[in-house]
């Protein structure tokens, strides 16, 4: 952590209402984190619930959703995990199947979920969400260091509370704050949703069998 860039400060301040904690006996309340730092070489990312079909989830360099790296998709079952090695730039699943490769972000990480059919990009970084709302709850583990529960939601209305879309466990991260680059045009995020959706279809059609 000592090597972390000085642009980071511990503890992020939420810009909008926090998300209700789904597992208060296991995780602390939503702490408003928008960007995370790695605390080691490997970041684990696992689903608790099945993802909406079609959808993709993963991480992105802080402040740059155009660099989004898919980790899981709706083609994967619930309770499925992948592991990203930042020294090797590789992603493997819990069966040690290679899932892909990436260029390690230099700064912090945000986490995202995309619903290509709706053209919807949701991020732990609020500025990239519809209406710049807080739509991803970040809940620190009460008993495991450097572990977070993430809950992705869609916006509430006057009559309906936020609707949960997916629950994920992230290991190997610590909270930081970060000032992102200017928000991309809405059309850019919609295009990204489409591109990630195309990646999802390619993965689904060419998916290796689990061992």
Describe this structure in words.
By secondary structure, this protein is mainly beta. It has one helix and 13 strands; from the N terminus they run E-E-E-E-E-E-E-E-E-E-E-E-E-H. Helices cover 9% and strands 34% of the residues. Strand 8 and strand 9 (120-123) form a beta hairpin. The radius of gyration is 16 Å and the shape is globular. The N and C termini lie far apart (36 Å).
Q: Which runs of at least 5 residues are low in confidence (pLDDT < 50)?
A: 1-15, 178-183
Q: What is the beta-strand fraction?
A: 25-35%
Total count of strands: 13
Strand order of the largest sheet: 7-6-5-2-12-11-10
Biggest pleated-sheet summary? 7 strands, antiparallel
Helix content: under 10%
List the topology elements.
Elements: E1 35-38, E2 42-47, E3 56-61, E4 69-73, E5 81-85, E6 90-93, E7 98-101, E8 109-115, E9 120-123, E10 136-140, E11 147-154, E12 163-171, E13 173-176, H1 186-205
Antiparallel strand pairs: 1-13, 2-5, 2-12, 3-4, 3-8, 5-6, 6-7, 8-9, 10-11, 11-12
């Amino acid at each position: 952590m000592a090597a972390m860039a000085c642009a980071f400060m511990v503890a992020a301040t939420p810009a909008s209402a926090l998300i209700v904690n789904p597992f208060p006996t296991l995780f602390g309340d939503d702490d408003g984190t928008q960007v995370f730092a790695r605390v080691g070489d490997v970041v684990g990312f696992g689903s608790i619930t099945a993802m909406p079909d079609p959808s993709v989830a993963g991480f992105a360099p802080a402040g740059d959703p155009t660099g989004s790296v898919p980790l899981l998709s709706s083609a994967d079952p619930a309770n499925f995990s992948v592991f990203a090695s930042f020294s090797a730039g590789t992603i493997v699943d819990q069966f040690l199947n290679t899932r892909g490769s990436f260029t390690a972000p230099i700064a912090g990480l945000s986490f995202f979920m995309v619903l290509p059919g709706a053209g919807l990009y949701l991020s732990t970084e609020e500025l990239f969400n519809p209406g710049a709302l807080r739509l991803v709850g970040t809940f620190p583990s009460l008993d495991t260091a450097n572990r977070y529960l993430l809950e992705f939601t869609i916006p509430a209305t006057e009559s309906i509370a936020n609707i949960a879309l997916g629950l994920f466990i992230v290991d190997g991260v610590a909270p930081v704050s970060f000032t992102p680059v200017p928000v991309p045009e809405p059309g850019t995020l919609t295009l990204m949703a489409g591109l990630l959706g195309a990646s999802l279809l390619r993965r689904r059609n060419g998916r290796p069998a689990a061992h």
